[in-house]
Write a structure and sequence with these properties.
Low-confidence stretches: 15-33
CATH class of the largest domain: Mainly Beta
Strand content: 15-25%
Largest sheet: 6 strands, antiparallel
Oligomer: single chain
Bound molecules: zinc ion
Number of strands: 9
Length: 185
């Protein structure tokens, strides 16, 4: 009996160690697991660093982006309210990152927030965006960034509609709309 007990303990210890190692390996390998469902072409760059990220110096972004997109996405700017092309836009499709093409929001989750900025109640995949605490002139807010390239997209607020109660308040220039089913429709 004593031996059986010892064996059980050994097996348990082994399992615990294996699990710990597996989760460590997972952290190291999968730095980013972006869910890409669309056939949308990458807009400006597909320069990845081998782990799913797009990392480029700001000067390089400046060369390939138009000035307003650069100001908003790479310098954390905000487009004027009611000025963006997707504020009053209700086509069916998906919105990708205007910098790197990462899938961000589906039109089904878009709603009219009457704020002057395109608003969504949830991202296509939580891992496709990144949240960051933003303490500045606008108070304490939660900034939303593209998880793939770090582009500034907008902010998230807790006054959205059901089912999430969240309002992802985005800049139109940070997004690029792709019609449903890409070119086949
Ligand atoms: Zn991006």
């Amino acid at each position: 009996m004593k031996n059986a007990h010892a064996t059980t303990m050994m097996v348990l210890i082994f399992l615990v160690i294996s699990c710990a190692q597996a989760s460590d390996a997972g952290k190291k390998e999968g730095r980013l697991q972006v869910v890409k469902k669309s056939e949308c072409p990458l807009l400006h760059t597909d320069k990845e660093d081998g782990t799913g990220y797009v990392e480029m110096p700001r000067e390089e972004w400046k060369e390939i982006l138009d000035p307003e997109t650069f100001r908003v996405t790479r310098k954390k700017g905000t487009e004027p309210a009611f000025s963006g092309q997707y504020d009053k836009f209700h086509e069916s499709g998906i919105y990708i990152c205007a910098n790197c093409g990462n899938d961000l929001y589906a039109s089904e989750t878009k709603f009219d927030s009457r704020t002057g900025w395109p608003s969504f109640y949830e991202p296509m995949a939580p891992e496709n965006i990144k949240e960051k605490l933003d303490i500045g002139l606008g108070g304490i807010r939660t900034e939303i960034l593209c998880a793939r390239c770090g582009a500034h997209l907008g902010h998230v607020f807790k006054d959205g509609p059901k089912p999430t109660g969240l309002r992802y308040c985005m800049n139109s220039v940070s997004l690029k709309f792709c019609p449903k089913n890409g070119s086949s429709d």
